[in-house]
Design brief:
By secondary structure, the protein is of the alpha/beta class. It has 4 domains: 130 residues, 3-Layer(aba) Sandwich (Rossmann fold), CATH 3.40.50.2300; 150 residues, Alpha-Beta Plaits (2-Layer Sandwich), CATH 3.30.70; 96 residues; 112 residues, Arc Repressor Mutant, subunit A (Orthogonal Bundle). It is built from 23 helices and 10 strands. A 5-stranded parallel β-sheet has the order 2-1-3-4-5, sandwiched between helices. Strands 7-8-6-9-10 form a 5-stranded mixed β-sheet, with helices on both faces. About 4% of the residues have low confidence.
Length: 530
């Protein structure tokens, strides 16, 4: 099963420590879960002897706070992977988590899927470190930047190296640009539109968009690269005044109409930095990006040193949760819908100015509450809903969000459709359609509408017939095709990820690991003859 990793969790609240301890079968993930610590000082005392690979820490603790602990770990034990746990009120501190080297933060109450996804990311990082140790040649940091643009994977490797291996020397691509630069992040939210525009050819898409961005900027010394782990993110490094950065951002948005490329977020970081600071700059930009208004409109966000944070509200309040729980306990899904859509205001989240972060946290809270109170179905019943909600959040689609919150309530209420003789044939048709169109964005709600079947009823009948959910079927088809594409050595893993339906390589890698028990790169080494 590979190497054992050691996890040390720290929280001053007993119930929180025990919740993390009991949440997952740690041994199944090849992890030794150490006795949890009560505070940051205890963590620092135990590290020399117990040598944990991963530390999960609460933000608010006495004596030595979570952020203080993260800072000390970054300085004294930079190889330890750190994960922070916080309440909603701690959001202003989230940037501090990333700036202190934390790879992720989990909102209380921590969910099983949240924890597993974050641990998968941590294990991926640890495995990559082991591969690096086995290699004879270390990547050396070059002394100066020489002329020419480098391939995307070179710059992305630099970014990933700084993000995931703080304190370790990483190769800096050579370039003749300035020693001090500003940064623009361009994020295309609707990847499905991009796929259709470029016929699912990720290499052509990346080249074409970079070429157009360089044209709009009009400076040959500018670096433009496509972050390989996020095919919809483009990073621009240039020397420009704040006024020119804003001018460039306006030109980019004007050149990419929403109807053709979908909504775009541009984040401007106008503080001078060097390529060596690329990870800290990227963390700042990503933490600011989630403050953008939710909705299918272009948006420009300035890195504001936390000034935007005060605009964020806790939309999923204790009152809303109590009202929703009361409705669900009374099996009154119509009133539950009213609480979510009207009382809380999700129906008008775009016109009311909700941020992407607020919509994300609200929908996560709602779905968790619905799933937790559903005694008829297990958590797999909500796989399709969660998958579709994630797509709605990534693409900034309110309609997708609303449809799937209603679908979650429908699943909780139970199927209303009567048995009929045609459903078996319809399920077979849907299964055949998935096997042919697995690389497209597919959802339970969309398939149900396309084949005229009630969604929760379709979910139940599909699972009964094939002994897997629709989401699991889609995932299996994608992974089978990915493994087939890996046989060709020239197929890059990031391109394979995009080709089979994933715009986020890290997510593809986590899913692949869950299915195959190893990372895509390890699978290729073990199973593909070179």
């Amino acid at each position: 099963m590979g190497a054992k990793y050691r996890v040390l969790s720290a929280d001053d609240e007993f119930w929180s420590r025990e919740n993390i301890r009991r949440m997952i079968p740690w041994e199944d993930y090849s992890i030794d879960f150490l006795e949890p610590a009560c505070d940051g000082e205890e963590v620092m005392e135990r590290i020399p002897k117990e040598r944990p690979d991963i530390v999960i820490t609460d933000i608010n603790m006495p004596f030595l706070s979570g952020l203080e602990l993260l800072d000390r770990l970054k300085t004294e034990y930079p190889d330890i992977i750190t994960i922070a746990v916080s309440g909603y009120d701690d959001f202003r501190k989230v940037k501090g988590v990333f700036m202190s080297g934390g790879i992720d933060y989990l909102l209380k109450p921590v969910g099983r899927e949240q924890l597993v996804d974050t641990l998968s990311k941590a294990i991926k990082i640890l495995e990559e470190r082991e591969v690096e140790k086995a290699e004879k040649e270390d990547i050396k940091l070059r002394e100066n930047y020489i002329s020419s643009f480098l391939e995307d994977d070179e710059f992305s490797s630099l970014l990933n190296g700084k993000l995931f291996r703080p304190g370790k020397e990483v190769h800096v691509p050579s370039t003749k640009v300035f020693s001090e630069i500003s940064t623009i992040l361009v994020k295309f939210h609707d990847v499905e539109i991009l796929k259709q525009s470029f016929e699912k050819d990720v290499l052509r898409m990346s080249y074409s968009l970079k070429y157009k961005l360089r044209e709009l900027i009009g400076d040959d010394r500018t670096i433009v690269f496509n972050y390989k782990d996020k095919v919809n993110e483009f990073i621009i490094e240039l020397n420009a005044t704040p006024a020119r950065l804003r001018y460039i951002a306006d030109r980019i948005l004007e050149a990419f109409p929403i109807e053709e490329q979908g909504p775009i977020t541009i984040v401007i970081h106008d503080q001078a930095s060097s390529l060596d600071d690329i990870a800290s700059v990227y963390r700042e930009m990503i933490s600011e990006l989630v403050t953008r208004p939710f909705g299918r409109e272009h948006c420009i966000v300035m890195c504001s040193n936390g000034q935007n944070m005060k605009e964020l509200d806790d939309r999923y309040t204790d009152r809303i949760e109590a009202l929703l729980l009361e409705c669900l306990c009374d099996h009154d899904t119509d009133q539950a819908k009213n609480v979510i859509m009207d009382t809380a205001g999700l129906q008008k989240c775009d016109s009311a100015g909700w941020s992407l972060f607020e919509v994300t946290q609200f929908t996560t809270g709602v779905l968790n509450t619905i799933a937790d109170t559903d005694r008829k179905n297990d958590s797999r019943s909500y796989e399709e809903v969660q998958d579709a909600l994630n797509y709605g959040l990534r693409s900034l689609s309110k309609d997708v969000i609303l449809d799937n919150i209603e679908l979650a309530l429908s699943v909780a209420a139970g199927p209303k459709a009567a048995e009929n003789n045609s459903i078996s044939q319809q399920v077979e048709n849907i299964h055949a359609y998935i096997e042919k169109h697995y690389m497209d964005h597919l959802s339970l709600a969309g398939l149900a509408e396309q084949f005229y079947v009630e969604p929760s009823y379709l979910s139940r009948k599909f699972s009964q017939k094939y002994n897997e959910t629709i989401t699991a079927c889609i995932t299996r088809c994608r992974m089978d095709q990915a493994k087939d594409l890996m046989k060709e050595e020239e197929n890059k893993l990031e391109a394979i990820s995009f080709k089979v339906g994933y715009d986020d390589y890290n997510y593809f890698s986590r899913v692949f690991r869950r299915i195959e028990g190893m990372s895509p790169s390890e699978y290729r080494r073990r199973n593909v003859q070179t």
